Amino acid sequence: MRSEDINPPTHIDQNIATIASLREHAEEDLSTHQRGIESVTAAIGRPRSIYVTLIFASVWCLFNALAPLMDLRAFDPPPFFYLQGLVAFAALLTTTMVLTAQNRQRRQAEHRAHLDLQVNLLAEQKVTKLISLVEELRRDIPTVPDRVDLVAEVMTEPIDPKAVMTAIEDRLEPSASDGGSGDTDAKSARRI
Length: 192
Fold this sequence. Notes:
7 helices, mainly alpha, elongated
């Protein structure tokens, strides 16, 4: 089956278009310098860069080590000080470029995380409202026996994201007072 024969449902197609639009918008804001740095970083991050680096260093070392045997002048005799300086400078540039690219990716990830949080909170609010409406309908329809559903009652209450975050932090992060010792488990057990 060809990919042209597969037509996703309209809502999925709209979601894909939205994601593509968000990505295009993020790429529009890139400066020429940022694009250049990310292009170089992408090229350096490929496996062939390892081979090119190994071949370059091997040829450099072999030439400079064997040059005196062939009556040639070695421009960087062992212990290859120029090569060491070149490697250190290349490492500095590579590290700076990778950090620059990662900073932008981190900012984009933060924006996506904020979007995810907003969508999730909205979805939770909608589900809570739907459960409330279904429960109200269940109570109002005479043909449906009225009963107490404790789970549904709890689910009609909106979730407080701050309370959830505090509970997560209390359970997962050891407090500063216990110094990361096993006291955290005892405190968690008492709370449960």
